[in-house]
Write a structure and sequence with these properties.
The chain is 4% helix and 57% strand. It has 411 residues and is mainly beta. It has a 14-stranded antiparallel β-barrel. The chain has a two-stranded antiparallel sheet with strand order 1-5. The protein is globular and about 80 Å long.
Length: 411
């Protein structure tokens, strides 16, 4: 009699990727990444410029890309981002379409006068969502015939509390404490036509709670601003609970429940950014980032990453037709942006490219509503003729208010 546990995870993924036309899920490529698909959880303005924000002084970036940005904020500020994500998975002549909606970040900054600026944020950093269910899948090497399903959800979320300050108006420094939460749940379903008694679902739950530091520095030089930021997460315990169940039963099979505990080291990362204000109308920015996957380890609880370092870069520009007219037309005050981004993913053979275009709509009181369309493609050379084309519609809401005003001078 065939035993279902002989169907290893690589064999399951091979079958699912081969049958992607019947899949009902999200990024297949990210199924083999340690924490899921990396997300760009920044402000709408930053995403619209290819993610280039480490060297851009902007109230609405709060502490998201560089905590030193807080030092330049002089009013209460907030930023939020909601993303409608559509994707087409294609392999050969087959394809499937998928849609998801999720909030990416919300952040607030509060000036405290000479004490600097404090801020809070919540960011969704990765998305581990994968859903497949295929009918009549056959693996010739094992004789398996029946239905195969795989469902994975969760990801990495960061809660941040930060502080920033201006240093004599010549530089800005910032620091943030991070509390990180990693929760990933996965279920593998094997429904055997010829062996119904051996039809099972394997369940795995991974949890991690960690602490990190995010430090930054920004230095304006004439019309340019140079920014650098780095992040380090302290290693901590990670726990995995696994069990195998009969289909439609809640009790685990005898001897199948297993609990593992080890340590997880999340890779450090850094970014160097520069922006240049050609005039009040034109701004250009560029970022170069790196993630040190060489330092990552989970001792087998999570997937491996075969890169030593994953490099990304983004470049973008912003144009405001008439920022200083006393009575401009509304369209002359809108922020028009364009950006390009390239990112290496945790697997050596995987990468992502995207192009963003959008508009920032000014609102009364100095706020800005961002509408950004991001078009891109994700590929992995490990899978023949396979790609993920995505369209992301980003809705950013940004605002702020200066609560303390200077008293008018009397003569």
């Amino acid at each position: 009699m065939m035993h279902p546990t002989r169907l290893t995870f690589p064999a399951v993924m091979a079958a699912l990727l081969t049958a992607c036309g019947g899949a009902q899920g999200f990024s297949n490529i990210a199924a083999t990444f340690p924490f899921g698909l990396p997300l760009n959880a920044s402000s709408g303005a930053a995403i619209n410029m290819g993610g280039a924000a480490a060297g851009v002084l902007n109230d609405h970036n709060v502490l998201l890309d560089n905590p030193a940005n807080l030092g330049a904020i002089t009013k209460t500020a907030f930023s939020g981002l909601l993303v409608l994500d559509g994707m087409r998975i294609t392999q050969g002549g087959r394809h499937s379409n998928h849609v998801a909606v999720s909030p990416r970040q919300i952040s607030f900054a509060f000036p405290l006068g000479l004490a600097g600026v404090v801020a809070l944020s919540i960011q969704k950093e990765t998305d581990a969502t994968v859903r497949f269910f295929t009918d009549s899948v056959r693996l010739s090497t094992s004789g398996f015939f029946g239905r195969l399903g795989y469902h994975k959800s969760g990801g990495l979320t960061a809660w941040r509390a930060g502080w920033g300050r201006s240093i004599a108006g010549k530089a800005y420094v910032g620091a943030a404490y991070e509390r990180l939460y990693l929760d990933i749940r996965s279920t593998k379903v094997i429904d055997l036509n010829n062996y119904p008694a051996n039809s099972t679902r394997d369940s795995t739950q991974v949890g991690f709670r960690g602490h990190g530091l995010h430090l930054g520095l920004m230095v304006p030089i004439a019309k340019a601003t140079i920014g650098v930021a780095g992040r380090y997460v302290f290693k901590n315990d990670v726990e995995s609970i696994q069990g195998q169940f009969r289909l439609n039963e809640e009790s685990a099979l005898p001897g199948s429940r297993m609990k593992q505990k080890s340590t997880l080291r999340i890779p450090p990362q850094g970014v160097l950014g520069v922006s240049y204000d050609f005039s009040p109308r034109w701004l250009a920015a560029m970022d170069l980032g790196v993630v040190g996957w060489r330092e990552y380890s989970s001792h087998g609880i999570l997937a491996d990453a075969d890169r030593d370092y994953a490099v990304s870069y983004g470049i973008g520009g912003r144009f405001i037709p008439a920022p200083r007219l006393l009575a401009p037309k509304y369209w002359e005050t809108m922020h028009y942006r364009l950006g390009f981004r390239y990112a290496q993913l945790p697997r050596e053979s995987a990468r992502e490219v995207s192009l963003a275009a959008g508009v920032g709509f000014p609102v009364k009181g100095g706020g800005l509503l961002d509408l950004v369309v991001n078009l891109g493609r994700r590929t992995d050379d490990a899978y023949d003729d396979y790609r993920e084309d995505f369209v992301q519609i980003n809705f950013g809401i940004n605002g702020g208010r200066k609560w303390i005003r200077s008293s008018p001078t009397s003569y």
